[in-house]
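Practice problem 4.
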């Protein structure tokens, strides 16, 4: 068994913006001392996300982090504390809450989580699909010893609402918008917003979505609809929300 800590590096349009793009993931294997920083190579996505940003500066910034944290002949004897390292990042570049999965020695945790957080750097054939991302949510619940059940919950009219996972105080539904015509997804979003409204005040609802910002206009409409009775987050922020909501 290996003890891992990791945190995702997100880029925000501004210090007060909620919209962000994951640029990299920093891993620290507590058991072996190994440190890895994986970051994006597809900077076209980054330019779409913020067309006013200095791409050359961001590339150099990410290279600097990698050189700073990864094991080398110059730092292999130095103590490394992930929390202390990420505490200094603020403004546009911010690290997420540290997560601490325990993984089997034969698990390639770095590769698997890199595919989750930096999925749009990969060819479509290499990316995790919607079912695999749902399994990741399940894995996060198990790692943190959170009890969950089948997501089906009774609705107002004695019907079943098919959430993906149900915890004591939280129902979770995962959406994959990649490659879909988001205009056609709007009606489905209305249905789920209505379903979330049925259990409003009984349980919290979290909608986790995956998108690559290709259709921001319709994505915003969908998020606004889903947000009426629920919390709506991208995958990384969704993981934070689950842990904060269920471990307090």
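Answer key:
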């Amino acid at each position: 068994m290996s003890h891992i800590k990791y945190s995702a590096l997100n880029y925000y349009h501004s210090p007060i913006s909620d919209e962000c793009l994951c640029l990299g993931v920093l891993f620290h294997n507590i058991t072996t001392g190994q440190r890895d920083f994986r970051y994006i190579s597809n900077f076209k996505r980054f330019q779409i996300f913020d067309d006013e940003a200095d791409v050359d500066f961001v590339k150099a910034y990410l290279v600097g982090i990698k050189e700073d944290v990864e094991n080398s002949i110059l730092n292999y004897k130095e103590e490394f504390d992930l929390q202390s390292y990420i505490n200094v990042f603020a403004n546009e570049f911010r690290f997420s809450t540290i997560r601490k999965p325990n993984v089997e020695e034969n698990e390639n945790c770095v590769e698997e989580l890199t595919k989750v957080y930096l999925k749009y750097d990969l060819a479509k054939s290499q990316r995790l699909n919607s079912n695999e991302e749902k399994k990741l949510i399940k894995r996060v619940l198990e790692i943190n010893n959170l009890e969950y059940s089948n997501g089906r919950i009774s609705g107002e009219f004695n019907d079943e609402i098919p959430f993906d996972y149900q915890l004591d105080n939280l129902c979770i539904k995962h959406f994959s918008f990649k490659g879909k015509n988001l205009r056609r997804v709007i009606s489905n979003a209305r249905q789920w917003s209505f379903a979330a409204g049925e259990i409003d005040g009984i349980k919290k609802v979290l909608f986790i979505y995956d998108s690559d910002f290709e259709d921001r206009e319709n994505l915003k409409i969908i998020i606004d609809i889903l947000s009426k009775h629920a919390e709506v987050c991208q995958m990384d922020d969704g993981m934070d929300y689950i842990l904060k909501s269920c471990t307090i």
